[in-house]
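queue> holo job accepted (iron/sulfur cluster)
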Amino acid sequence: MKKILVHICCGVDAVYALRKIKEEYPDAYIEGYFYDPNIHPEEEYILRWIETERVCNDLGIKCYLAPYEIEKWLTAVKGLENEPERGKRCSVCHDLRLEKTAEFARENRFDAITTVLMMSPKKDFQVLKEIGESIARKYDLQFLSIDFRKNGGIEKMNRLSKEAQLYHQNYCGCMYALFQQREGEYIKELVSYGKGRLPGSREELLFIKQIRAFAESLGLPCKEEGFNFVNWRVIHSILKINKQEIPHSVLWFSRSVKGILRAKVKNLMYEDDKKVALLNKYNCKIWILNQTLKDIPLEMPRVFTEPILIVGSDYRDLIDIDTKVEIRLKTEFDENGRSQNLIIGNPEAVHTLEYYSDTLPDGKEGYSFINIKGAILENLDRIRRGEIKVVIYGAKTAGNLGKMYMKKAFINI
Ligand code: SF4
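queue> job finished
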């Protein structure tokens, strides 16, 4: 029986290509090989791997996760950083990935190799074919050059990918291509904010995909429901009181301050859980909590607000009428915010176990993978019988948005 090793770069490219290979070589033993050190950053690499594994599991194909050799990739493409996509950097990148695939194939007694990179409309089929054939020859292997795109391959890939609700990345993989694609723009794909899983972040999506992969490995039906929202994040923030820098957090949907704001406290108000200092400029406020500093999740979506900075009770006595305050604050609104709910089990089940996928920026106020895995295992029989479902809502800390979306409490046009 012929043994074929298939290099895989992502779930989307693999979802149809693997089916096609199975169809063309029905008697072959097929295995996947995920070697993609070109993917930046590492969270993106893990996300693409999880989706690849989901696709392979569904088709009963074993897939091997090779090490993430980012330094090796960076060294290989040194000097080619500014090459355009499909240029010399891409040839080196393909060389590196296919050479490693061939090495693994030779060591593990495969007869042939191929790559699902040939699925992508953005890749040059002829170049991949030539690279693949030359590398395979070196290792005494056959290279299978299959034009997956022929006969409506792309449409089939898109349909299958949609059905499986696969994560569809919007860039090839490396930071250099992203720098060119978004020249002069801020590239949020390369940035992580805080230690937690913020609403709409890749970390939040990765968490959902990890749980989904686990639930599907138990044979449970899963469904993701995505929704859009206006996202918000802090780019940088400094608060000084009487020239002393103070640890603080910023309330969701606070707008930026232009330049440096130098102001004084003009009024103090006392509420149940905090003291509020109103500054004499721009309606800025400082909330001084009755407890130590913590990030504050929103229970409800809120409107755009003047800057509100939050400090812990340790600074209660430092802030009084006429206290001098200095603030630098840059925040960002993103109209492309997107999060998702994950439903595990029968969506019609009467009982629901509720969890959340996001956390506060400090990583608090959330659930761990272990928490949710434990709940699924504990209720496995009831989930299988359709008596209970597990729902993991997205974007809780931004105002319970996932739960509101499920209850149709707002309309996603
Ligand atoms: S654009 Fe894609 S193929 Fe080209 S070097 Fe970057 S990751 Fe590799």
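queue> The radius of gyration is 26 Å.
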